[in-house]
Design brief:
Elements (H helix, E strand, L loop, with lengths): L1 H6 L4 E3 L7 H10 L8 E6 L6 H15 L6 E4 L8 H13 L6 E4 L3 H10 L4 E7 L7 H10 L2 E5 L11 H9 L4 H11 L15
Parallel strand pairs: 1-2, 2-3, 3-4, 4-5, 5-6
Helix pairs in contact: 2-3, 3-4, 7-8
C-alpha cells in the first residue's frame, strides 16, 4: 500500500511507534521508485518511551525500522506516561541538533502543555497533531497555534466516519454536489487546518 501510494503521488507518510508498522512502512519506502528526499516521513514516540535516554534510543530505532537516515518530523505521541518536559524535551533538542530529526512535533497537546513545551525547547515546535473535525473544533487550540506559528494538523478529520451520518453535513454535501468527507475537509481548510503539515505537499497517507 505504501509503495503504491508513493508511486501514485503521495509524498507524506505519517506513522508511529505504537502502530507497530514502521518496518512495513520502511519496506514500502524502499520498494517505491521515489527518491527519499521527495518523501516527508513522520513518526511518533509512544508515552512509555519518553524518558530522556529512551527518546534517543527510540528515534534511532525508528530510523532503522523505517530504513531512513533521518526523520523529517518526530512527534511526542501523547504528553502522558513518562513525559516530563524537563527530561523529555532536551532529548528532542539533541536529536534536532544532531540532525537525526529535521522537525520537532507534538501530538495531543492542549494550549497550556504546548506553551510549556515551547518554553523548554530550544528547537521550534513545527506541528501539533490533534483530533479535529466539525464535531471537535478545538477553537482555543486553533487560536493559540495561529498566534504561536505552530502548524495544527488534524487527525480523524472525518470523525471516525461520523461525518457520513450527520444530517447537516449530508445536506450541505448534496447541495454542493460533494460528499460529507469533502465538506468536512473543506471546513478544516477554512479554519486554517489540514490533515497534513503544509510543508509536505498535498498527498498524505
Amino acid at each position: 500500500s505504501v509503495r503504491t501510494a508513493l508511486e501514485r503521488g503521495y509524498r507524506h507518510v505519517d506513522t508511529a511507534q505504537m502502530y507497530e508498522n514502521e518496518e512495513a512502512v520502511g519496506d514500502g519506502l524502499a520498494a517505491a521508485d521515489v527518491p527519499r528526499e521527495d518523501v516527508f516521513v513522520a513518526t511518533k514516540v509512544w508515552h512509555s518511551n519518553l524518558a530522556h535516554d529512551d527518546v534517543l534510543a527510540t528515534a534511532q530505532n525508528c530510523c532503522e525500522r523505517l530504513g531512513v537516515d533521518f526523520l523529517d518530523l518526530l512527534y511526542i505521541h501523547w504528553p502522558a506516561g513518562e513525559y516530563d518536559p524537563e527530561d523529555t524535551l532536551p532529548a528532542f533538542d539533541e536529536l534536532y541538533d544532531e540532525e537525526v530529526i529535521d522537525r520537532v512535533g507534538l501530538s495531543n497537546f492542549d494550549p497550556e502543555l504546548l506553551a510549556t513545551a515551547q518554553d523548554v525547547l530550544d528547537a521550534p515546535v513545527f506541528a501539533n497533531q490533534v483530533e479535529l473535525h466539525p464535531f471537535l473544533p478545538q477553537t482555543e487550540l486553533r487560536e493559540y497555534c495561529e498566534e504561536a506559528d505552530v502548524e495544527l494538523v488534524a487527525y480523524a478529520p472525518l470523525a471516525r466516519g461520523k461525518v457520513f451520518e450527520n444530517d447537516t453535513l449530508v445536506d450541505v454535501a448534496e447541495r454542493h454536489d460533494a460528499t460529507p468527507a469533502q465538506v468536512s475537509l473543506a471546513w478544516l481548510r477554512k479554519k486554517g487546518v489540514t490533515a497534513i503539515p503544509k510543508a509536505t505537499g498535498e498527498a498524505h497517507i
